[in-house]
Amino acid sequence: MHNDLIVIDGLQYSNWNRAIFKQLREGGVTMVHVTIVYHEQIRETLLRIGEWNRKFEVHSDLIMPVKCADDIRRAKELGKVGIMFGAQNCSPVEDDIGMVEIMRELNLMIMQLTYNNQSLLATGCYEAVDSGVTRFGQQVIKEMNRVGMVVDMSHSAERSTLEAIEISERPIVISHANPLSFHDAKRNKSDTVLKALGDSGGLLGFSLYPFHLKNGSDCSLNDFCDMVANTADLMGIDNIGIGTDLCQDQPLSVLEWMRNGRWSKSMDYGEGSKSNADWPKPLSWFRDSRDFPNITKGLIARGFNDQDVAKVMGLNWLNFLDQGLQPQTVVR
User: Fold this and answer.
1) Count of structural domains within the chain
2) What percent of the chain has pLDDT over 70?
3) Which residue in 55, 73, 79, 80 has the fewest CB atoms around it within 10 Å?
């Protein structure tokens, strides 16, 4: 069954190379949302896009760019892996709202309003005080809606996330997080947020990053699938998918860049514990993208029917992107 599915991973930040592209294809992945930016600003973002253009040229037999939702279907037909660009912070637009449209024209499809800290747009989940979406943030959400760039609140605090859901005229995503009720981590989301997300037509991508899971690296596939089932009851089966947050083969320096950016001289431990100062040990049942079939098998074993398995593994993401990537007006 797995080989027939459209499989979408709602977020990865791996150390991209040909071997990893092959693993994606071996795991039956149709499309992956790749983070091209954490704290990079405009020029650096353009350099990352240029690097990916070169990858598309060199590895054209394995990967292809996703410039619209139909490209995901085309990737499935061609047996290639579609690559969709995203940003985990608002740094690519800096303080210029005109950059939203320009970045969308360069195929930046998804952008988080914050990455852990307070940004110009909203509050991150590690801040002590959540002041909500800023005045500039309200304008950026409106512009993202207009040009067909998806709002992502994965690393944002509760009030900011709820306000973004309310402000956005189009459904938003939390591309890689889990329910707070499953595991108490600042990055995970309360039932209040998840219910509001589902009611608005938004989408949650379940994270397989061990720090977001009960029992960490020892989380069982059964427990993960129980979490999926319980969240389906809360949000609706049409509003959930996968966003692994896989950071494969990355050096510690990349983790430091994610956590520290340029704002901190010392390692930011996020939740105050040195236990998460290095990459976690992978899950036994999800070491890399070749293990995607294990999730399909786990959902079937948990009692999901074939239609619902197809939704969770990719169709919900595809249906969401069919609408979310369409500009409200013609982009020049």
Assistant:
1) 1
2) 96
3) 79
pLDDT 10s digits, 82-127: 999 999 999 999 999 999 999 999 999 999 999 999 999 999 999 9
**167 lies in some domain:** yes
Residue 83, classed as helix, strand or coil, is strand
Question: Per-residue pLDDT tens for 159-209?
Answer: 999 999 999 999 999 999 999 999 999 999 999 999 999 999 999 999 999
Q: Tell me what the mean pLDDT of segment 259-279 comes to.
A: 73
- In angstroms, rounded to a whole number, what is the distance separating the alpha carbons of residues 298 and 47? 40
Residue with tokens 């992502």: 152
In a domain, 272, yes or no: no
- Whether 25 is in a domain gets the answer yes
Best CA proximity match to 126, nearest among 136, 118, 138:
118
34, 55 contact by CB (below 8 A): no
Say how far apart CA 61 and CA 63 lie, in whole Å. Answer: 6
pLDDT of amino acid 331: 47
- The CATH number that applies at residue 161 is 3.20.20.140
Residue 81 falls inside a structural domain = yes
Start-to-end CA span in the chain (Å):
41
User: Which amino acid makes up residue 143?
Assistant: E
How far lies 211's CA from each of 89, 247, 256, 265, 280, in Å? Answer: 20, 12, 16, 23, 7
Residue 293 belongs to domain spanning: 7-266+279-324
